[in-house]
Amino acid sequence: MTLDKLELVCVGCRAVYAPPRLHCDHCSGLLRSQYAEQTFDPADRTGLFAFQDWLPPAACADIPAGAVVYTSQGLAERLQMENLAIAFSGYAPKLGALNPTGTFKDFEATPSILYYRERGVESLILASAGNTARAFAYAAVQLDFHVIIVVPERALERLWIPCEATEAVRLIVLDGCDDYATAIRAAGHIGDVLGIPNEGGARNVARRDGMSTAMLEYAKQTGALPGHYVQAIGSGTGAIASWEAAQRLLAAGVGTELPRLHLSQNAPFTPIHDAWARGIRIDPDRDPEDQQRRIDEIDALVLANRMPPYDVAGGVRDALSSTDGHTYAITNDEARAAGALFEETEHIPIGPAASVATASLIQALQDGRIALDDPVLLHITGNGEALLRRDFDLHQIEPTWRVRPEDLTEATIETARDRLVRSP
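RESULT FIELD:
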């Protein structure tokens, strides 16, 4: 496998670039991986690197990340469904799901670090509200790659990994801040001052293609595409990734039509659902106090993203449009009941975001958007830390620098440089 295995094509204007790159020079469209290998020929191995032909890095890593796809018995029987598959992307050894930080963010981190390192990048900076930080911190320790992670103070208690952190990870905590959008902007500013490239979020093709492997795993097992794909979303990057994977599979002769996307958010913070249902644009700066109040009310804080890639070419709106998709606003009570039902019937605890997805499946069945005999892929994107705590010692990541967002100036960042930048 060589580094010229892919090129990047702008979804908006079709401009072509060599990787790594995050932005098109001509428009705001997302760049998408176009692989030299267009046949679907998974390797005889488990985990996300079974699909290395459709992952940006040339190398693979011995980190046990990947979706386990299985045919539901308990939940399907309770819901009277005939063809329900579950993509389980958390940690559940009895299923063979061994994602080291318990969510599908593990699919993003390892391919991203390998992708950038192979192309001469020595450090990355990124923002997170919790799950992404854990996944990148763990992968950075395992691969000895320098990352700077910026999080709002509210996320600090969730920043653990199942190993000791090393000097590879530098954690910046924004004191007095509970806003992920602020962390995103802060990471951009800090990276610019320090000269460290941003990991890219939704614009990072290694992230999206890593997340796409849940759909690829379904195709590997069934030789087909599902009729419906159900997932809870914050940024919607995972949904974009699944849509892109389905397009690659169709082009490779797998399946006959794109799966219909069913994307859910945790009410009352539902910017993507509101935009799709009302045909409006998302304004991350509109009434920030009201948006924060809504965020404070939801259980699934990992879904609280005020800056999703919705309106850009190749973004969430395009994915919903091309698949005749639907969005859902799921209350805490609905999600809690669905999570309890999943645990009762599948005998595995799941996290708040996955509970939101399960509740949206129930709602789609009740509303007739999914028929009982339709082939459905429900993506359980994580299951929290209970089983990981049972099997591992979880270690908190200690902050390298604590700073208030309003104190982030070029001068203060330069003062902190020695703490943040890894010595050669």
